[in-house]
Design a protein that fits this description.
The protein has 430 residues and is an alpha+beta fold. Helix content is 33%, strand content 21%.
Length: 430
Amino acid sequence: MQLKLRIISACAAALLALSGCGVSEMVEDMQGELFKKTRFEDDSNYTAVESEKSVDCEYYEPIVKITHGYDALYTDSQRTCYELISEAAYRISENMDSSGHYPVGKVSVADKTFTDKDMDICIKAFTMDHPEVFWLTNRYTYGTAGNQSVVQLYSYVSGEECAQRIAAFNDAVNKLVAGIPNGLKEYHLEKYIHNTVLDGCVYADGVKTSEDGWEEFTSYGALVNGSAVCEGYAHAMCLLLNKVGLDCYYANGYGENAPHMWNTVKINGEWYHLDATWDDNENAFFNYFNLNDTQIQSDHIIEKNIEEVKDGETLPSVYNLYLPECTSDSANYFVIESTYIDDFEDCREVMVSDLIEAAQHGDSMFTIRFSEDFAFSDAIEVMFNESPYYMFDYIGQANESLDDKHQINNENLAIIMIENFNAVVVKLEY
């Protein structure tokens, strides 16, 4: 019998099909003369929209309020501004301004020393704590009047249109939440939501700025339109994981030499990195599902936390508000899901049993993780390329216990090699 082996990908780094990740431009600070020309409309011209009122999951206790961004604020004026934004964001003008955007309720902070750095931090904290607020633009006008610092934010859509979009958004979230099975443990809850988001969303190639498509940067784009860049994926994951009681926030940095956003998530008391964007690739196969700091930094750069930005230091274009240490690999996909091999003969019984179970369930993927005592290249050779061709031997033995319907094709195997986890994914055909 001629054995055929197709190697789909040699390593995790080669799996990326993205040419950088689109991220929205930094919030635009328009001061001085532009601020003087800003027309602050009377609130009577604004439409009040309701906040996201999605039905919470029937089986799991939600995190009602995300506060990591708010908790990162370090002055009373910043906290006051955040709270005022929380009110102003839901009052949207029906009149478009000259930029093509719609003013939201203005914010006045009784602190004339309030800086553009303060403002940037407040807006970032609010938008990250509220992934359901999808309509705010990346633009604001800002200035001082007497002892007041006055800020005008903007919406991409009018109040009336925003209300319609919120209704569609709530419907999409409610439908997804209603489908979550009962009785899932934290890891499997996370995995279910991860897979559901990836099944319903595609990466928006070609979208690099909000001018290319603002919705792709939002949870609305990911969950309603089914198209998003990294920010949209991250906001959708944060929103939904909090719906089932899993603490989730964001990590900001760089990937593939471009600004990038992903999530941090707390599973069984430990924090992990979760990059749904980079997992949304046919051959990625959970490469970025619950990584620790060392693992994620193999191809991601994590930017500094706001606490590390010293007084008087210019705020970097990319930074983090809350960044927990991620030191565990206990909930890593390959640790939990793989059949572990530390001896090819001693593990024969387990391998054959797991293959039989996978075939009976019709699984298309079978994951193996080798002991760190093995050199990865040596393990691959012994498993697939050298006599006695252990993998083909295991499959042959499993097939002896399987009926015709569940026979595994062992003449043409395709594999995905995940070298950084000392793992290999075997694509099963029947």
